[in-house]
Specification:
The chain folds into 2 domains: 44-156, Immunoglobulins (Immunoglobulin-like); 159-190. 27% of the residues lie in helices and 39% in strands. It has 3 helices and 9 strands. A 4-stranded antiparallel beta sheet has the order 6-5-8-9. A 3-stranded antiparallel beta sheet has the order 3-4-7. A hairpin with a 5-residue loop joins strand 8 (121-130) and strand 9.
Amino acid sequence: MDYIKPQLPPEAAKLKGVSVNNKFALAMPVYLRDNNNQPIKPKLTAQTIKPGKVANQPVIYTKLANEKPTTINQMQIKDKIYRKSDPSKTLSKSNQNGLSMAPNSNFNFTNQFGKNALLPGNYHLSLKASDNNGNKWTIEKDFHITITQAAINNANKNWWWIILLIILLILILILCYVLYRQHRKQKNLIAQQQAELDKRNDQPK
């Protein structure tokens, strides 16, 4: 922002009792170009993808970033999210128009899941975007939802208990496996010791 201060004539500058000094602000737009005198093109990327919750409903936040010092105007975004194990089944999709991004900025693009449960596992985001200057972007990105993230962000609070029961069951199975291994190892050791003892008893004295 540049400031302009008017130059007063000498006669006006000598007047006494004048306490008002005008100062004007002037905003000057700048159109950036590269070394080849070409306009700088914006670059749209997806930095992070993570689950969240809006109005007690699960959502997916995709952090979109404009990585160049130029604006994106009248942007249209179409995307869909599906599990990597079942690409034919779209879990969430969105189509938004009239979006704008400032230079070197980012924002969270939101996908609603509604009442559908957000299950842990591997997912894929397929996103296409374009602006009024003919720029187009395609983003294909995998992301993972953990058991904890799913439990926290699902609308149905019963999922907490289901997830906890699953974790508890896994821990019990691991404990049973460890105890079984220890018991089997101890049993084999006893059998080996008994075999050595029997062998010694069979030897002639």
